[in-house]
Amino acid sequence: MSAALLQVHDLVVDFSGFKAINGMSFTLQPGEIRVLIGPNGAGKSTFCDTIIGRVPAASGRILFKDQDITRLSEHAIVGRGICRKFQAPGVLPSLTVAENLAIAARQDRRWWRNLGRALPAAERAQAEAVLEQVRLVDRRDVIAGELAHGEKQWLEIGMVIATDPDLLLLDEPTAGMGPAETARTADLIKSLAGRHTVVVIDHDMAFVEQLAAPVTVMHQGKLLKEGSVAAIRADAEVAAVYLGRTKHDAAA
Ligand SMILES: Nc1ncnc2c1ncn2[C@@H]1O[C@H](COP(=O)(O)OP(=O)(O)OP(=O)(O)O)[C@@H](O)[C@H]1O
Ligand SMILES: [Mg+2]
Fold first, then answer.
1. pTM here?
2. Given pLDDT bands bounded at 50, 70 and 90, which one contains residue 234?
3. pLDDT exceeds 80 at position 109
4. Fewer CB within 10 Å: C terminus or N terminus of the chain?
5. CB 36 less than 6 A from any atom of ligand 1
6. If you measure from the C-alpha of residue 219 to the centroid of ligand 1, how many angstroms do you get, rounded to a whole number?
7. Is 195 helix (H, G, I), strand (E, B) or coil?
8. Does residue 38 line the site of ligand 1, with CB under 6 A?
9. Which DSSP symbol is given to 118?
10. pLDDT at residue 142, as a whole number
């Protein structure tokens, strides 16, 4: 047994001859928060898609809790305890905040079978705890479709937390947020450390600073650098891969 939660060895993803992931290796310890950055097209989203089983690996291995999950279906991988929040909103817009969390907390993932039925006490408690964690208690009875953009994102993160995964993959959770919402998102993600392991993809360096977590930089489908925020900021090779892009592009 190794201590690592996730180990990715020499992963390759081939889209009809284009290697979007080209020899990526990566290790995560349980309970850590890791930031994944890299220029547009570096392969960050594809990397998460492959971990969760949505995009097949051409070669390489993905081990989760020391078990090979490389060829498992997305359904099976979610069942093992990995959950991914996508860039597109996944809330059910006609239900309230509390109802969305209750559905996500269902142990039976075929939640539509249970729609409208009473929630078992343990799952109700779980949904309540998440409501507090994402600080939406006073918005519990608001229809999700009417939430502000930031609130919708927190609800979605809450829905991921409610499934109690060991590993959360968050792809650009601050997209479209202002500075205050971004800061609150950083606090929320930091509060997950320990109980959950989290990979956060983001371009916003202010947000990355606030997370104050180790950073992995991807470039052209593979690992470029790993280190503290300060070390990555000072790294000439990292700067070079972002070169030619304006500051605005890098923050977009
Ligand atoms: N289904 C696909 N078929 C072909 N090429 C793809 C597919 N999905 C992604 N790509 C390509 O793979 C590369 C990596 O894309 P990916 O979306 O993983 O990058 P990213 O690092 O998430 O970028 P961004 O920062 O813009 O979100 C890009 O060149 C993209 O065009
Ligand atoms: Mg992406």
1. 0.89
2. very high
3. no
4. N
5. no
6. 12
7. coil
8. yes
9. P
10. 97
**Three-state SS at 131:** helix
Say how many Å lie between the CA of residue 247 and the centre of ligand 1: 21
- Tally the C-alpha atoms within 13 A of residue 232's C-alpha that lie toward its C-beta: 23
Q: How confident is the model at residue 87 (pLDDT cuts 50, 70, 90)?
A: low
Cα–Cα distance, 91 to 80 (Å, whole number): 23
Judge if the beta carbon of residue 46 lies within 6 A of ligand 1.
yes
> pLDDT (tens digit, 9 = 90+) per residue, 63-74?
999 999 999 999
> 20 alpha carbon to ligand 1 midpoint, in Å?
7
**Ligand 1 touching residue 87 (CB < 6 A):** no
Q: Are strands 33-37 and 59-64 parallel, antiparallel or unpaired?
A: unpaired
Could you give the CA distance from residue 139 to residue 94 in angstroms, rounded to a whole number?
14
Could you tell me if the CB of 198 is within 6 A of ligand 1? no
Residue 251: pLDDT band with limits 50, 70, 90: very low
Q: How remote is the CA of residue 160 from the centroid of ligand 2, in Å?
A: 19
pLDDT value, residue 106? 77
Ligand 1 pocket member 43 (CB < 6 A):
yes
Give the pLDDT confidence score for residue 86 in this predicted structure. 65
pLDDT digits (tens, 9 = 90+) for 175-230: 899 999 999 999 999 999 988 999 999 988 899 999 999 999 999 999 999 999 99
Ligand nearest to the CA of 24: 1
Instruction: Name the CA radius of gyration of the chain, rounded.
Output: 18
Domain ranges of the chain: 6-251
Q: Tell how far the Cα of 30 is from the centroid of ligand 2, in angstroms.
A: 24
Please state the CATH superfamily assignment of the domain spanning residues 6-251 in this structure: P-loop containing nucleotide triphosphate hydrolases (3.40.50.300)
Burial class (CB in 10 A: 0-12, 13-18, 19+), 22: middle
Residue nearest to atom 16 of ligand 1 (CA): 43
